[in-house]
Design goal:
Layout (H helix, E strand, L loop, with lengths): L1 E2 L3 E7 L11 E7 L13 H5 L14 E8 L5 E14 L1 H4 L19 E12 L4 H17 L5 H10 L1 E2 L6 E4 L6 E5 L12 H9 L1 H12 L3 E6 L2 H15 L7 E3 L16 E6 L12 E5 L4 E3 L13 H13 L2 H4 L13 H19 L7 E5 L5 E4 L1 H8 L5 H8 L1 H10 L3 E2 L3 H8 L1 H7 L3 H19 L8 E2 L21 H17 L10 E2 L7 H7 L7 H15 L3 H14 L3 H13 L6 E3 L1 H16 L9 H9 L2 E5 L3 E4 L13 H27 L7 H6 L2 H11 L5 H30 L18 H5 L22 H26 L4 H30 L20 E11 L18 E8 L2 E8 L9 E6 L3 E7 L12 E9 L3 E8 L4 H15 L8 H4 L4 H13 L2 H15 L4 E4 L14 H7 L1 E4 L9 H4 L5 H9 L1 H9 L4 H5 L7 E4 L15 E4 L4 H7 L10 E5 L6 E5 L4 H8 L11 H18 L2 H5 L7 H7 L5 E2 ...
Amino acid sequence: MARLADYFVVIGYDLDKRGGSEGQGRIHQRFPEKDWEDNPFPQGIELFCQPNGWQLVPERKPPSFFVAVLTDINSERHYCACFTFWESVENPQLQKGESSEADEDDGPDVLQPAQLYAPRSLVLVSRLDHTEVFRNCLSLIYTVHVDGLNVPMETVIGNLLTCIIPIAGGSQRTITLGAGDRQVIQTPINDSLPVSGCSVALLFRQLGILNVLCLFCAALTEHKILFLSSSYQRLTDACRALLAIMFPLKYSFTYVPILPGKLLEVLSTPTPFIIGVNSLFHSETQELLDVIVADLDGGTVTIPECVHISLLPEPLLHHTQTAISMVLDPELEVADHAFPPSVQASTLKVQDKEIRAIFLWLFAQLFQGYRWCLHIIRIHPEPVIRFYKAAFLGQRALAEDDFLMKVLDGMAFAGFVSERGPPYRATDLFDDLVANQAKRIRQETGNSQKVMKHVKELAEQLFKNENPYPAVAMHRVQRTAENAQPRVPQTSFPPLDEVSVQLFIDHAAAKLKTAPPVVKSELKGLVPAGPPLADVVDRNGNVLANSARRLEVVRNCIMYIFDNKMLEAKKLMPAVIRALKGRAARVCLTQELNQHVLQNRAVLDDQQFDYIVRMMNCTLQDCSHMDEHGIAAALLPLVTAFCRKLGGGITQFAYSCVQEHTVWTNMQFWEAMFYSDVQKHIRSLYLENEDDGDASANDGEGDQQQVSALELASEQSRLWPTLSKEQQQERVQKEESTVFSQAIHYANRMSYLLLPLDTSKNRLLRSTGLGDVESVSNSYVTNSIAGSMAESYDTESGFEDAESSDVANSVVRFINRFVDKVCNESGVTNEHLKALHTMIPDIVQMHIETLDAVHRESKRLPPIQKPKLLRPTLLPGEEFVMEGMRVHLIADGREEATGALGGPPLLPAEGAVFLTTYRIIFKGTPTDPLVGEQVVSRSFPIASLTKEKRLSGSQVSVPLDQFVQEGLQLRSCTFQLMKIAFDEEVASDLAEVFRKHVHKLRYPQHVQGTFAFTVGQSAKLVVEHKTKDKNQSLKTLSKNLVKTAKRTIGRQYVTRKKYSPPTWENRSSLQSEMDEDEISVSEEPDQSSLTLSSTIRSSDRQTMSNVVERACCRDYQRLGLGTLSNSLTRSKNEPFRISTVNRMYTVCRSYPGLLIVPQSIPDSTIQRISRCYRQNRIPVVCWRNSRTKAVLLRSAGLHAKGVVGFFKSPNAPTAGPSQADSTSLEQEKYLQAIISSMPSYSDASGRNTLSGFTSSHMSTSGKWGSIRGSGRLSMYNADVGNRLAGKESPQANGGPAEPYFLRQQRAYLYIIGDKSQLKGGKQDSFQQWEVVPIEVFDIRQVKNSFKKLMKACVPSSTKNDPNMTFHRCLEESEWMNLLHRLLQVSVLVVELLDNGSSVMVSLEDGWDVTTQVVSLVQLLSDPYYRTIDGFRLLVEKEWLSFGHRFSHRGAQTLASQSSGFTPIFLQFLDCVHQIHLQFPMEFEFSQYYLKFLAYHYVSNRFRTFLLDSDYERIELGVLYEEKGERRNPQVCKSVWDYIDRLNKKTPIFYNYMFSPEEEEVLKPYSFISNLKVWDFYTEETLSEGPSFDWELVRGRQEKPSEEAGERLETTTPKSQRRIVWPCYDSLSKVVPDAITKLLQDVQNLESELGQPTEKWKDTWDKIKTAQRVESRLESRHSFSSSLLMSSNLSHQRRSQGVYLQESGVGSSINLALDCESATSTPAAGRPSTSTLYSQFQSTESENRSFEGILYKRGALLKPWKPRWFVLDKTKHQLRYYESRQDKVCKGVIELAEVESVIMGTPAMGAPKNIDDKAFFDLKTTKRVYNFCAQDSMNAQLWMDSIQSCLSDA
């Protein structure tokens, strides 16, 4: 029972203290005047009556009522019901007299009203929350006062203060205050359930579902919440509603539903709160940064940026939302029905309970099974209960869930555990729901009808709790008559007589004392626990992920270990380690190990111990620090049980080897472990008691096992009151000593796991060089033993004692903290606690001493055997910089090598990393014993390294018997990633040295430090070289060059031009270059008449002739663009000439020495124009279409100033002949000259008549890469910009749109320019050129795209995120998009050229995108560039001569390091690869050729792709050295020579499907769907590393095959099969290519049928002739080639064709030029393919003009032997073989050396019965050969044939 009201207070306006604008309230009277003992009077009530402040108002306001809530120091809530009305007072200002100084402030204009009204509040203070009852009582008192009823006010108040009502129980109590009133007070049935009225439903109406859910989650996760409203009652209701939906959790922070304005600074408190504030103060709440503001009137919730609210876990959040919307808006479901049933939303009161029911249902799901995770650690005198959070989260599989973690850590949940934890107490609705309805809730999920049914049932119970008898609610309260004008109180509220009120109170108190005490029958009982948690998880399927097979593997392995079958165990180990990733396997491991422990001990031998420790480490490795699955908990007893004997009677336990896991340093883990052990012991304590008391009652152990600790505790709590004092005392003592003994036990356990084996070293200092695993494993830092330990680390101090004690101190401190916490919580006495504190340092010290002995002995163990390091083969000239360091190659994100796609895992592998002058190489063997004998190698050139990143120990996961300290991740732009972890034997400073060396080699000071230059010199020299470079830098070189330039330019004079600052790209270059920039060489106008020799001094003729030899010149002659002789004696009708204006590289540094320019343009103009273009790269011709004579030009973009001038019409009025203007005129002239050179221009009689031209040239259709009729026209219109500005053409295949001319005519010259550059340019309708603005991607885009592409193709770690799949990453990289845009522009240019328009590509600086486009255009338009020679020429001309900045873009030196790697050339090669895929028969070179170039253009093995321009190459003397000097034949300096050499030996670069059509223009599709990812990016061969360094591959292949052969012969019959692993073997090498395969099959068939083998040469010749005839017959247009673009079908060409799979490296086919050089190495177990092949020697490679058998006389004393001789006219030689069938030639006689053929005489030992005339002699310059034919006729034939051969020559 409780008082309805504790205090009644009358508060009024304090007229005396009216200072300033704010008034104050004053308590006029309070009853009772003495505080109740159990409930002191709350302070500060006057502030809460008028939260906005006390003010006088000029008009009377209506009475108001609200309830404020105050919280006292014991966190009891007091409800203050405030009823405020307004009384008139005289204006105190006026009363003071007119002349008072006070009103002078107000000024004369302000009229002070004579009548003011002051507030008066009647306040009831109560601990019960009966809002309506309070409203009625206070209204009644007001009515009595206003209406002047004849009831003494004292009586009413006395009755009110003495009214006593029950708190709960559902009873109704009728009360009367003695003024003719009656009201019924309804108490709730169960007071643990909150009473909410309609407040919850109203809150949802005001704010909406999501907003309230946000607030709900914010309140649970302890955020600050502020409600705003202009109504006080609403604020109180909203706060009450928020607390009601939090049930069963109780809010324990600051809770102030109505905060007075004076106390607003409370809002900046650091603790969480729920507070309501009147909207008046809205502006003051604006600057709160971490408060969530809910505006009830506006319906908004504002969450600041810095606040992150964790929401409910899905799918709970969604279910809850759906359920609430079904309650609030039931029409929603049927809103779309054609005949909607009438659905009525429940009344507010019912809705309110339904919403609360949903939240109850939500909590039942969140906390389901929580009672299984309670640890009871004391039962008497009071139960002490702890919640095991980690286990709860682990079993619910919600360990990652942010929301639940925060809730379980929060104060509200702690209160929940202490309130609901005790097992013996009264239960309520929630207990029933969480225990007994769990199954029902689980079945309902997802079925909204069932959920709603359940919710309605719960709502009914909640409703009943508040309104058990809804019918009887009758109130009769006198109020002031509403309809009449409410009467105004005439008099102010009278002072009451305290004595009479006190009498009432005393009288009631006396009555209470005499009354019998009310016994509240509280039903206590055992709280049901509900179903155990294990069932819950099965739903999520997390447990079932481990198949029984894996558990079987774990069990078997453990069995083998204990049966000492170590080999078997070793085989299973990798599988076990994989299995242990799963939780079930880890649990299984702990259970199995438990079975092998006898009496707490299991002694093992060394190997067993190693394996068990490995498994334990592996199990712990994947445990989080929380140990949510209890794995570490299960292992804890085992690590102190398993041990091995070391020498000297010393035992080493497993705990000394498993300390490297964060879980041991987590205080919460130790607490949970401690509590669960205490619970076990206390349970057994009481179980024993029962056994002693009543042994007969127990039939067996079975029943007891079922009794949980909580059930026992409940039973004990029930019995407690019945025990005598002594018994009670005894039980308390027993429990306390149990806890104490456990604390000692845990102090020991913790010291075991926290003290490192080698305590002499500080934890941070790593003990190195110990081969022994056990000792080393502990020298790591555990990730800080706890926050406080960090400061105890002192790495610097040099005293060993200090350090060892340091570790000891920190461990002691950690254990002390633990002991303090658990002992205080579990009520250990102070004496015991002190005893513990003195014991702990001794325990630690003792343990350190035993560990020292163990450490000493363990050092003596023999070290683990590690595989021996394999040394890699090196290239000639390549040398080691650092010898092998033992490392582990860890698997990265590519799945093939890890066995994720099937097959044994090749990675991780153990081996060594080598650093050479050229490469970084890893070579080793996989750690998985099943593939242990394979060799794994991964390497890449140092020059291709793009990123190097350190990995910490935690990021490196390697097999567990190895301990690694750190690792490196090296990424290369040859699409290789090396993740290596250094073995413990590698000193950490060595790893650092390795990094520094790598950096030094990757970024040499100067390009001469790269491998291509230093090859063959010793590695030491590299370092010296750099220092030398510093002194004799580029400066001097360029100065010399300038001098010679000035000297050599004959009769030219030097002028100074205005200095223009260099562009940003050059700014970093040396000052001397800038000086040189100022010199401009302007020639005299009669330059055109000078001859070449007259302008060049003899000293430079050498250089000049070299320039002429350059590739470009050969190509220009081929294209008919002028020859050098032409430029000397020029015929004027040639449209173009070769200009030597740039021969000294003075006009443009980055251009070649010879340029093709229009005939009519003098060199002086060129120099002037060059200033308009960026980098002075003027437009020059680089290719001419042989059919339409259209030319392709390239240049850089214009300088900004040039753009405007460029488009100014020449006759526009200008202020004066400025320089810009004159150059722009010259520029126009230049363009006009180009246009006039085109035949189409000169032919056309008038400009608009293009008809003749169009008809003749434009009907040809190019070749599209697919099956497509050739009848289509594919002319291209001028509407080019449209298509490239991103508006895709309507045609499906990426081809151009149909031709509809935009302008009346086609332009003669299209200028492809950069959109951003060409702003403001106006198109002149009379000009013959048209500018096509396109958007080019800039270098940054390419760079970023490439980085993303590398990460997609070679990810550094496996990504489980579905948004990070390969295809998604590839798409995000936008690489394919860039290729698409490049191809699109190129195809467009090709079409324009094909249609007779010239095109000038002038983009960016003219050396990146321009180069790509121009090269692709030539490749597509001119079949010559699709041959091996042609492609080389294309690259030399467009990329090398025209100055693509290879060194800069490849970041090859220190200077360009910051600019990063930009693969412009690789992008071009990728485009070529795309075209190659679409036109496989048009290219002479194979895909491998492209990969080879892609690899070596970054490898720096050759000098070809070094430096940025010809100028730089000449300066370094690189350009022309190749011809003269060949000192070291092994070392190729040019990649082209290397390719030529290789091409002669083996056909890897040759495309067997090469069968070009004449003059074919290719037009590939460029849509992204047509592009394929280049396999260069994704494939790798782990068996031997990249195959692009051919010597290494070949060298490796020969040896194994011989050994394999020997091995096979001794064993069983040979198998023809060979296992091929992706990513390990190169498929093209292991699988025979198609030709070899077919030939072999044919030969087998022939031998089976017994036919003589037919000569394949004949068949081949037949095919050749047939094909030639056929191609003549076929007209070109009718033929439509059908290309079956599929991987396995052969590509058919015409009717017959030969198909060979692209033969990769080391293919055993050799298309040898002559038989001696055939050095093929057949793979073991297969006949040599060269034998098959040489019978298929094509007509070209061997021409047999005459053949037959001759006897040849051997050397002295050797017999005559018959040989098969072949006379070959073409090769001019006589070859001989053992027999006709023989394919390998035995010898060659060169006919060039033959002097004469004469008749011979029979000599000794000649064959018998042979005509004398059959002998003849062949005399050569070296010796005489004696031959004998079968008869004289034959001999004559031979002599004639040889003679005719000689005379032909």
